């Protein structure tokens, strides 16, 4: 069961630090694997070139172009310093063990974590969760995992999930000045790459990018979701009851364009600040509109992004989540080991949804994350001996040790941004 073969991290330990020395072009010793390095160098170069080409279109706004990444200015072509992610991990009754597992699978000391158990879970679960976090020496030392004490209701089908995201993002903005992207994970999601992989690739991308699936195509199916008027009890009752549907329906709005999407997205800090602290009224107007529509979480953020001129060019129409929709049940189909290869080849960062402790999660731990049961995914910051407690000895958190996952993700991102085709799929009016 322990049998920690963990091929990815040890392999990458050899390759990636050398990549940065190669980029430095001052490495005196030519290495036998130079070919591999050149390939990696070229693909990273292509990534940065693509970005410099795609994002330098003149912006109508004055001020520095947010898309000019420092890597284009610096004459020291070293790896840029890693970004930081702010995670909301939320679940309900009985979910605290899987929230802890997901936390360990996505943990990195540079990130910030907020754990939320909705009111269907007894308060004892929340206490237990907080206690587990406090008793873990790593979380305790890094002080970057927080548990929400007074929970918010979140009705999957109503608008309270938007309220929960905004509340959590507001807390995370107050907790730290340093994070760059907001990621909200449900307890039934799981990562497919290590945080070292993810932070490494994100460090090459403009920090204003938002990864959001969206479409303005409103067919009868979408209209059926947008026209009803609902009242989400999560917004005003302290206990769960069914959602109310009004007998009347309303027309689609004409003052702005509605975009539909999916509930998972990776949102930039500047966009979250715009939604929460900004002076522009658009986020609040749309919040009021979507408060009375079903499934507003999948529509709110895409609609704000695409209707805000300062953000409509920052959207990538791909949320980096692997999920399979079950159209019969109008929900996600649970993933299992049959889906493992497809998940890897998708180049996605996360996958959803999984049944509690499905064996495929052990497979992901073993093959993709190099994680042994009950421990944290080891990264470049873990200096201990391989085994259970390798992350009890810390090094510099900014030293990443990306593995094969970063190559998969890089390939996916390069494909996504190649030829500027992402522009033709960005906030398009259909
Ligand atoms: C973004 O908004 C500006 C101003 O409203 C508009 O001219 C432009 O076409 C929009 N771009 C996209 C991709 O929607
Ligand atoms: C998001 O968009 C991508 C590209 O269009 C698609 O492959 C993927 O299935 C979508 N994901 C969801 C959850 O809709
Ligand atoms: C995985 O799920 C699919 C679809 O539900 C099913 O056909 C397949 O047999 C499952 N595989 C395993 C290993 O459980
Ligand atoms: C990890 O911990 C378990 C139980 O605490 C122990 O049985 C096992 O030998 C440890 N493995 C290593 C590699 O230290
Ligand atoms: C991008 O360009 C390359 C080479 O010019 C071409 O092979 C590839 O098919 C293009 N990709 C897309 C999505 O158009």
UniProtKB/TrEMBL annotation:
It comes from the Eukaryota. It is found in: Membrane. GO terms for cellular component: membrane. Keywords: Glycoprotein, Glycosyltransferase, Membrane, Transferase, Transmembrane, Transmembrane helix. Coiled coil: none annotated. It is a single-pass type II membrane protein. The chain crosses the membrane at residues 34-55. One of its GO terms (molecular function) is glucuronosyltransferase activity. This is BGGP Beta-1-3-galactosyl-O-glycosyl-glycoprotein. The gene is LOC100811397.
């Amino acid at each position: 069961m322990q049998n920690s073969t963990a091929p990815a991290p040890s392999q990458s330990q050899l390759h990636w630090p050398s990549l940065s020395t190669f980029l430095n072009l001052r490495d005196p010793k030519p290495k036998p694997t130079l070919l591999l390095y050149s390939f990696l160098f070229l693909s990273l170069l292509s990534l940065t070139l693509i970005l410099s080409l795609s994002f330098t279109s003149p912006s109508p706004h004055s001020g520095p172009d947010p898309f000019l990444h420092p890597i284009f200015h610096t004459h020291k072509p070293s790896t840029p310093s890693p970004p930081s992610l702010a995670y909301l991990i939320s679940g309900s009754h009985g979910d605290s063990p899987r929230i802890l597992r997901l936390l360990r699978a996505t943990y990195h000391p540079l990130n910030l974590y907020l754990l939320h158990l909705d009111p269907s879970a007894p308060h004892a679960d929340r206490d237990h969760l907080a206690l587990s976090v406090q008793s873990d020496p790593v979380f305790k030392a890094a002080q970057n995992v927080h548990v929400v004490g007074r929970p918010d209701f979140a009705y999957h089908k109503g608008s309270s999930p938007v309220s929960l995201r905004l509340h959590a993002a507001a807390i995370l903005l107050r907790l730290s000045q340093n994070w760059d992207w907001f990621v909200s994970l449900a307890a039934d999601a799981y990562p497919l790459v290590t945080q070292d992989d993810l932070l490494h690739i994100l460090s090459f991308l403009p920090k204003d990018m938002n990864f959001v699936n969206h479409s303005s195509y409103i067919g009868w199916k979408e209209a059926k979701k947008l026209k009803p008027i609902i009242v989400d009890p999560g917004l005003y009752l302290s206990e769960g009851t069914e959602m109310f549907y009004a007998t009347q329906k309303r027309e689609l709005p004409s003052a702005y364009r509605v975009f539909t999407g999916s509930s998972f997205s990776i949102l930039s800090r500047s966009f979250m600040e715009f939604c929460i602290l900004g002076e522009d009224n658009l986020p609040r107007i749309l919040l009021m509109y979507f408060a009375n529509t079903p499934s507003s979480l999948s529509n709110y953020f895409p609609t704000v992004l695409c209707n805000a001129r300062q953000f409509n060019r920052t959207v990538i129409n791909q949320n980096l989540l692997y999920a399979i929709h079950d159209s019969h049940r109008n929900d996600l189909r649970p993933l299992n080991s049959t889906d493992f290869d497809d998940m890897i080849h998708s180049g996605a960062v996360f996958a959803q949804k999984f049944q509690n402790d499905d064996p495929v999660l052990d497979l992901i731990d073993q093959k993709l994350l190099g994680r042994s049961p009950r421990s944290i995914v080891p990264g470049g910051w873990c200096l201990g001996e391989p085994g259970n407690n390798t992350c009890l000895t810390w090094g510099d958190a900014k030293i990443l040790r990306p593995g094969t996952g970063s190559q998969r993700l890089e390939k996916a991102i390069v494909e996504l941004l190649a030829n500027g085709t992402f522009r033709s799929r960005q906030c398009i009016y259909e």
